[in-house]
Design brief:
The chain is mainly α. The protein has one domain (43-313): MetI-like (MetI-like fold). It is built from 13 helices and two strands; from the N terminus they run αααββαααααααααα. Helix 4 packs parallel to helix 7, helix 4 (72-103) packs across helix 10 (224-240) and helix 12 runs antiparallel to helix 13 (280-314). The radius of gyration is 24 Å and the shape is globular.
């Protein structure tokens, strides 16, 4: 009997069964979710199309009383804080995942995995409150002076690492975001490391490889695409984070040319100002920034898919 006839027979058996009803239900819910997403995006666009333009995107003016609005300051703050978070989160997540998966004793690994999962579930407002009460004073007293005095003295690029040492600013927001996304990325990388076939590791150890050589030549090349995907997911989370960033970034509509200066992000601007947007122009400007955030997030997702597809073709 051919595979085609077996498939047709299985389809007839499933027809009218609980499996077919469940399939229809999930398919319907998927279409409903897609329609809702499209409706939300269209609604935001229609409410912001009057102000959404290239001049709005590249303008740094944000003066609600004068009804002057530009999105560049919020876009720059969003991108820079997210990049800072990824720069710190990716290597730390890889190291934590490698320790939990390959080095830690089994009981300690189970304990650490539970703590990581617990940290991943903490609401972002808790991270923001902790950042404001605990982390900002630490940054003000120790990290900001170090960055100003040491990194700020580097020729050509030193000015980027300067700024007011008040503890609130771009660097603090990026570090708080990194602390938020490290547990999520670590949990994903642990699963990736656990998916590496044991035969590969045993063969490498059998050839006399050290743990470092096994990690660098076997484990991480095997999961490289997955690590890239988890990094992109972390970047997407950092781009859209609101409350944690709002507490520690300073919420200043200025173009962030220094890493220690206060700034703002798209999500923070919307959270801070939408309830107080008394004019239609102000509300439309905030909706326009929200639409731009959606476009940026979609662009990051598409870029990650393209990179993963390209990597899969090459390997």
């Amino acid at each position: 009997m051919s595979t085609y006839s077996i498939s047709k027979k299985d389809a007839r058996i499933r027809k009218g069964s609980g499996t077919s009803y469940f399939y229809s239900l999930t398919k319907t819910l998927s279409f409903v979710s897609l329609i809702l997403l499209i409706a939300i995006v269209i609604s935001i666009y229609l409410n912001s199309k009057n102000i959404l333009s290239w001049d709005f995107i590249i303008s740094t003016d944000w003066n609600p009383p004068a009804k002057q609005f530009g999105a560049l300051t919020a876009i720059a703050g969003t991108l820079i804080s997210a990049v800072i978070a990824i720069v710190f989160a990716v290597p730390l997540s890889i190291l934590c995942a490698f320790f939990c998966s390959e080095l830690a004793p089994r009981k300690l690994a189970i304990l650490l995995r539970g703590l990581i999962d617990m940290l991943a579930g903490i609401p972002s407002i808790i991270f923001g409150f902790w950042g404001l009460i605990v982390f900002v004073p630490f940054m003000r007293d120790y990290i900001c002076p170090f960055v100003n005095n040491v990194l700020g003295s580097i020729p050509l690029i030193g000015s980027f690492f300067q700024g007011p040492p008040i503890g609130i600013g771009m660097l603090t927001a990026g570090l708080v975001l990194a602390i938020m996304i490290i547990p999520i990325m670590t949990a994903m990388i642990i699963e990736l490391l656990n998916s590496v076939p044991m035969q590969l590791k045993e063969a490498a150890f059998g050839l006399g490889s050290t743990r470092y050589e096994v990690a660098s030549k076997v484990l991480f090349p095997y999961i490289k695409s997955g690590v890239l995907g988890s990094s992109m997911l972390g970047l997407g989370r950092a781009l859209g984070e609101t409350m944690a960033v709002t507490f520690v970034i300073g919420n200043a509509h200025v173009l962030p040319t220094q890493i220690l200066m206060p700034a703002t992000t798209i999500a923070s601007s919307i959270a801070n100002e939408f309830a107080e947007a008394t004019s239609a122009v102000h509300a439309n400007a905030l909706m326009a920034t929200g639409f731009l955030l959606f476009v940026i997030t979609i662009a990051v997702i598409l870029l990650s898919r393209f990179i993963l597809a390209k990597y899969s073709e090459d390997h």
